[in-house]
Amino acid sequence: YLGHPWCPQWFHVHHLNTTTGKMSKSKGEFLTVSLLEEKGYDPLAYRFFCLQSHYRKGLVFAWENLDNAAGAYQKLVNKIAALDPKDGEVDQAVVKEYEDKFRQQMGNDLNTSMGVTALFDVLKAKTNDATKLALIGDFDSVLSLGLLEKAADKRAEAAQAKTTQTESGYTVTGEGDPAIDALVLARYEAKKAKNFAEADRIRDELKAQGIEIIDTKGGASWKRV
To answer: Quick one: which of 146, 136, 175, 142 has its CA closest to 158?
Structure first.
């Protein structure tokens, strides 16, 4: 029916409870993914909430508890987004060390709460960002929290926020400093008007501030050196 084999193991988690008792359809107290989305929650934040409890234990649901989990999930994504994929080469010895710990923790009767803790252990590890991202991707292939995808979206949003574009389509990409962006744009306008003396003056002013300008097709980028 599915076009591929179904899961080899299947089990139910313990009851999901409200603060007043077991959640049930008969009481009209039950959650759906659609309801969570209607209320503005990311379903993966709810998954994160569930993974922090062992499947043999009842889980008490309250919107306040979900808010706390959603906040923690977002902080986790933000920390991962701050990692630089180009920072070093993946250290296979460190990868093996942390993967072994993760397998041991998850192998203890599918202890997902310890699996989530392992993510934070990786973020605190004394290793480079490339290794941390490799481990997080590996752990998340089990936890399925969409962490690398969410982090990549965050980086893209941040990059977009640091890009200024004129009506003519000229773009300035930097570190999000409006004053520097304005000077780079002023240099562009001076060059466009063939006022090369002014353009050189602005370039020298930026250089004195430790700013390097790199002209690109259709714009310029700058960085502090």
So the answer is: 175
**Cβ pair 36, 46 in contact under 8 A:** yes
pLDDT digit string, tens, across residues 11-27: 788 888 877 777 766 66
Residue 91 pLDDT level (bands cut at 50, 70, 90): very high
- Using pLDDT thresholds of 50, 70 and 90, give the confidence band for residue 28: low
Pair 125, 99: CB distance under 8 Å: no
Alpha-carbon distance of 59 to 112, in angstroms, equals 13
Instruction: Give ∠ CA 62-67-68 in degrees, rounded to 5.
Output: 100
pLDDT at position 26, please? 64
- Asked whether the beta carbons of 214 and 208 are under 8 A apart, the reply is no
